[in-house]
Design brief:
2 helices
Length: about 70
């Protein structure tokens, strides 16, 4: 675990870890569904949503870091 000295930064980082794990799992599932069109389409959508969550979580960390000069 990374310690930032700021509880908000730590919470944002934990959220980012969770989002990246979700993104990885969704991408892994997607890669296993190549060739199964119907399931692939749903998994692709889920992967895109997980990717968006991951990017949003990273932006929140960066914004906090800039605004509060921590982390």
């Amino acid at each position: 675990m990374i310690v930032f000295g700021c509880s908000t930064a730590e919470a944002l980082f934990d959220h980012y870890i969770s989002a990246t794990t979700e993104y990885f799992q969704a991408a892994d599932k997607l890669s296993n569904l190549v060739g199964v069109h119907d399931q692939f389409v749903g998994a692709k959508r889920q992967t895109e949503q997980a990717g968006a969550k991951c990017r949003a979580a990273l932006l929140a960390i960066e914004k906090h870091r800039v605004e509060h000069n921590c982390g």
